[in-house]
Description:
single chain; 542 residues; mainly beta; Porin; 7 helices; disordered N terminus
Amino acid sequence: MKKTFMTCALLAGFGGWLHAQDIYKVEMLSGSDLDGDARYVGMGGAMSALGANLSAMTTNPASTGLYRRSDIALTAGLSSQPDGMHLIDNNQEKGADKTRGFFNQAGMVYAIRTGNDSGLKFFNIGFNYKRSRNFKQYIGLNGINTPNGLSQTWQMLDLAQDMDGYWLDLGSDKHREWTTPLALLGYDTYLIDPVIQNNTIVDYLGSDAQKYNYRRAQWGGVHQYDINFSANINERVYAGVSMGVYDVSFHSILCYDEMLMNEKGQHFGNSSMYQEESMTGLGFDGKIGVIVRPLEENPFRIGLSVTTPTAFDLESNSYLYLSSPYTDDDHPEGFWGDTEVYNKYRIRTPWKLNVSAATTVGTFLALDAEYEWQNYSSAAVRYSDSGEYFYDDYYGDGWTSYSTDLGLQQQIDTWMRNVHTFRMGLEARPTSQLAIRAGYNFVSSPFDKKAYLNLLADGPSYYYATNTDYVNLGETHRATLGLGYTSKYFYVDAAYQHQMQEATVYAFHYNDADRFGIDNALAGQHIKLHRNNFQITLGVKF
Length: 542
């Protein structure tokens, strides 16, 4: 395993973020990308009230009630991260900004004309798959200076105390149960060292650092499957329900190293951390929606939909390796240690409310605008009551045999913000067969500007923490363009999306005055997470 780590030490840039369950993982599973068929993307995702679109059933299930013909479509595309770092692995250079292909949508609607004079004109059945979240991301920070010798090991010192501030004896099996795997490996590799007086630990000493390098890569995604039922009532009211199933697959790699200093301020070696983590699971939610045309002779319509929280049942596996340059006669090359952590838990995402409005101008122009609200106070992380580290003080009322991590819930309530999404789109048809589309999509930041990864949150998640880094995402802006061609039975659509998002990366959190303090002595590093996506949809209507 040491050889595997040394390969990682040569990396020049993997990036992403996944830790023990925390507010950042809650966001990762609660947010969504602008993805789906090319018409939906080309309109900026603003199709909820216009309807008659496969991907729109994921935001307002009533939208499929506007279908009067059956529809089948497949979508594939390309994606790139233009600001991705370059990766070096086994002397083979790989571009993190390399364009990659993906298959991101497949769906169908079967439109059933009822011939019913009582008001029900159509009853439609639909299914749609789309890639709800693309986790592929790269971040790399090179040669970042740390002020006044600040080191990741200083945060390990905070973790070497219990919640009341008493120093733990990390050489004792009993005390080792009361801290994180990261702090234990820091102790095992002498990155933190106890100060002993009268056979009692009265303090720990950390290491001092000059600079650090930080690399993360993540890949995988959330795949969403919706089964939809909708109805057209008198061509005035459209109602629908959808049941969603979500398949999660996530993988990440972290490489972090520090240049350590001795008492004279001289560099004498590097400490290094390598982490691998994978997460898999399933989630379920429900959606209900309605679209109404208030005026019989006017095409203007308004839509309303509600999406329940997605209940994810998840498990993760994490491998952590830590090495230091400290030596003795038995370890002339330095100390190293590793550990594996398995975790099983549940995450409940926020409720969503979507309000939309749309109209058409003859057969030439279609317009849609909508607003979506996510209530993060309704999110939660829950554990099995029978877990090894679970105590009554950590829990509130929860699902059967699962209870809420109250320490982490406090972090969600404090640092996560309700997310506001605005979508606008237009489609112009210069001819009956050709369509030109444009859209804009805005998503507010899910985090308070001072949000941080609190490894001292008093709850079960504390015992699974294997890293210290976190990324505070900023707001997201997406601009889209699209083209479409339609014949009697066949259509083809294409869309381009430019996503602009910036973020601040912190390798760890440390407050010198108060280990529970909010302000971080380590400056955050500003990064760009822009993406370019292109996709094409082939479809048949009959």
